[in-house]
Structure prediction request, 764 residues.
Amino acid sequence: MSPRSDQQNEVLRTESRARIIAAALRLFGSQGYEATSVRAIAEAAGVAQGLMYRHFSGKEALLQAIFAQSIADVRESFAIAAAGRPDQSPVERIVRTALALVQERRDFWRLSYGVRMQASVLRALGGALPDWTAEIRATLEQALRASGSAQPTVDAALLFASIDGVAQHYVLDPKGYPLQAVTEALVARFK
Amino acid sequence: MSPRSDQQNEVLRTESRARIIAAALRLFGSQGYEATSVRAIAEAAGVAQGLMYRHFSGKEALLQAIFAQSIADVRESFAIAAAGRPDQSPVERIVRTALALVQERRDFWRLSYGVRMQASVLRALGGALPDWTAEIRATLEQALRASGSAQPTVDAALLFASIDGVAQHYVLDPKGYPLQAVTEALVARFK
Amino acid sequence: MSPRSDQQNEVLRTESRARIIAAALRLFGSQGYEATSVRAIAEAAGVAQGLMYRHFSGKEALLQAIFAQSIADVRESFAIAAAGRPDQSPVERIVRTALALVQERRDFWRLSYGVRMQASVLRALGGALPDWTAEIRATLEQALRASGSAQPTVDAALLFASIDGVAQHYVLDPKGYPLQAVTEALVARFK
Amino acid sequence: MSPRSDQQNEVLRTESRARIIAAALRLFGSQGYEATSVRAIAEAAGVAQGLMYRHFSGKEALLQAIFAQSIADVRESFAIAAAGRPDQSPVERIVRTALALVQERRDFWRLSYGVRMQASVLRALGGALPDWTAEIRATLEQALRASGSAQPTVDAALLFASIDGVAQHYVLDPKGYPLQAVTEALVARFK
DNA sequence: GATGAATGAGATTTCATTCAT
DNA sequence: TATGAATGAAATCTCATTCAT
Prediction:
């Protein structure tokens, strides 16, 4: 009864959505959220401007969707990667995995670092970013406690900040930054 | 035509300029550069919108002026503060001074962290931010070399990232963040 | 290619058309023509957006179709209802029948009153509305002449305006308006 | 201290505002509220599009301002005109004054009749229109009671509807409508 | 030196309409 | 016949900037 089958429609929709998200992530990451226009996203995605609004209720909703998906992706990748190295200590595994993921998903991290100081944008994200941050801090604290840290809460705050700082400096200048060497140095200091 | 003396005019001008910069720094820091309108800055500064254009050629030039002045201020404060503690090692002095300055100039740091991922904004700043970054890194490297670090370049990159990360986490949640304890932990690990 | 007979197709077509007209009339009447989107009509009718374009060449043509059909319906109902009361004078019959029909077809009257001040919409209707209006006025004039009115043209204009005004006030607040009493008062004054 | 004096600014603002309101009233009246774009209003007023937003928070607020001002104007004109004819009965004065005002302010009445069936637009007006309507009805009722009407409430409803209907038919075709004659006929029937 | 009314380019968003199936 | 994803023109609105005084 339907002219295009439901399956065909599903494929079309999914592909459009993915293209829009990919283009938006790229542009948001490189130019910033506010500096990226919906028109630019549509052009980069190769679709009409209006199409975005059939997938997302607006620019903010698109940002939310990107965060929701990226956070889910990163969490999953993290779980898989971290589980694979039983020879490393928990702290070492976390550090190495986190910094490897930053390499893989540079655009998302740029975006994330770019929006986290902007009240208006953060508001649009609801509590997604703070919640995630708290979760990471808790994981680090647990790992440090297991490693015999005397003050795991403070050490977790410091380690988290260090990872975050390294990630950010790397993302600002991926080609010039000695990520491997810095990773080793960081692991060495927190082992 | 003007009944005011040149000197009086000069004072007025300087005061207006300072008020505009202060208002802009506050708003840029809390809302982000793009999300802050010139109108909002003028209102917060208690001047007319047009006045900004008699002091700066545009919004971008205002941002540049803020950076130029803030960087100069921070550099000066840094020199003074660091010189005052001959009892501490160079590395310790830098860490403590840097994190103390972050507390003093939260708005500037928020702004700085907020724009550094935005290509368009960075472009407006010319090389000011990268240059400054390089300078800090070099200072750290020198201090670490003096402390006998085996690989001062890598250690400087790590220490810089750690300070930056701590500063950023603090700035994101000044009330909740245990800055003192984290500062001590950081000093301890790099002494 | 189609397994359905021509007759079945014809039934489907007629049903779709009727549902679209009904939904459009309801929405146009309650929200206004411009404020009603084609998408909303399709949703209310339970069909796909594109289907409207297989029945009508566009939104304007749909409006024309609604008017054409509604005018025909009202005319027919009017003829039947008016013919049935030989005990009443022609003027009384017209007044009572008209106000009874307004109750029956509130949505159409709302729509009609809503669009009649809008040049662009009127243009789309061609001369349908003015023609109909002239026809009603002529009928009233004839009835008033039969009733012995001294100036049937002017009296027809006044009576028409009064009926129209009552109808409109009723349609604006169907529950609160004392339509019966006002109808009696109107009949009394023009008998 | 101010470059243009406050008075000059006041004049500029007031003139712009008046031009925008006049242009909007004209276009809303002839094309309808929804069919009139802000761009068209600005062009007709001879100002830039953005200027409207420095006087009104949006298109809806402009509509509200037009209604507020027009209702105030009409109320005032009404009071003056009605007071001037002690030789006429209250009912006669009201009818004659109302229909004279419709001639004077055709655009406003067209607009008023055009929006009163549109839920979305009415909502924007808050209760202004219903409140005004109720006020008129009450005035009519009082006048009819003074004239010795047996059922003043119903008679007021009928008279109001008749005036409204005549006004609307006149406004739809000002040149062809025999307003004077119909006014006389209406006065005669309700005296 | 300072003001704020005015401008107009460009942003986000809506929606009538098309078209492959 | 019917579907609904996709289009793109046009709408409302924002905001950096200009300019007369």
Q: What stands out?
A: Chain C is about 75% helix and 0% strand.
